Amino acid sequence: MPEPVSPIDTNELLEWYDRAQRDLPWRRPGVSAWQILVSEFMLQQTPVARVQPIWLDWIARWPTPSATAAASAADVLRAWGKLGYPRRAKRLHECASVIAAEHDDTVPADVDTLLTLPGVGTYTARAVACFAYRQRVPVVDTNVRRVVARAVHGLHDAGPPSSTRDLADVEALLPDDETAPKFSVALMEFGATVCTARAPRCGLCPLPHCAWRSRGFPAGTGPAKRVQKFAGTDRQVRGRLLDVLRGTASPVTRAELDVAWTTDTAQRDRALDSLLVDGLVEQTADGRFALCGEGEQT
Ligand code: SF4
């Protein structure tokens, strides 16, 4: 049975965005493509409220790719602070180095070139092309997938991602004129603040048509999403170990690291191994541990 189609009303969405958008620093005039790229790296798995202060400090300290590339990998990891998933910081540093060395310190504008950069995937490449260079390209994140699933396809949630289908879905919604980039950011903002995952604010919805609402809000058929807990996970242990190393400029002994997590020693060993494998931590010749790039100081 073909799915009912209820294209999202462009004018209503854009008018809603004009009056309801959040004042986020990376959306302000004068923010460079590099600074937008930094925000996208940080926002990939971290909420806006935690990203804002780190991003502001970051771009004040390292406003360009070359400035970031000139910093040490360890200082970049320190500045990443508590944003989590610190492999992103390492990839961002590598990305800055490539842009500085191979792209004249300027973030490329086309999606295919963006996709060649370290740490830049389908979403980030299109987000930069759209938000920094005002291109008409579909930008699909979790929020956008959810809005399309509900408003267009009449489903509770989007189901498993499919980059081909998801991009085609959003491409079909984009206006053909110069409002396309604004439509993209508005759609994302709408999913983040109104058509939210757990409690969509349908009473405040500016869209005149929503297929899910028309169908009487049928429940989802997939398994209920479990809220990811952080306490006790390997991610928490990795964070504790990195905290020890961020707080010192010289390598530390294994015993100094071990006190960071005493609950489960096997888990601690596993976390440390993974940090070494990821290249975030390195071991000195005499067996101590340091942030990447700082182990050779012995
Ligand atoms: S009516 Fe509710 S579910 Fe439909 S688009 Fe609006 S906020 Fe989302």
Return the string of H and E elements.
Answer: HHHHHHHHHHHHHHHEE
Distance between the termini: 68 Å
CATH superfamily of the domain at 234-291: Winged helix-like DNA-binding domain superfamily/Winged helix DNA-binding domain
Biggest sheet statistics: 2 strands, antiparallel
How are the strands of the biggest sheet laid out side by side? 1-2
Give structural notes.
- The protein has 298 residues and is mainly alpha-helical.
- It has a domain at 234-291: Arc Repressor Mutant, subunit A, CATH 1.10.10.
- The chain is built from 15 helices and 2 strands.
- A two-stranded antiparallel sheet has the order 1-2.
- Strand 1 (281-283) and strand 2 form a beta hairpin.
- Helix 2 (33-43) packs antiparallel against helix 3 and helix 2 packs antiparallel against helix 8 (122-131).
- The longest helix is centred in the N-terminal third of the chain and has 16 residues, at 87-102.
- The protein is globular.
- The chain starts with 9 loop residues before the first helix and ends in a 7-residue tail after the last strand.
- The structure holds iron/sulfur cluster.
- Iron/sulfur cluster is lined by residues 150-151, 194-195, 200-202, 205, 207, 210, 212-213.
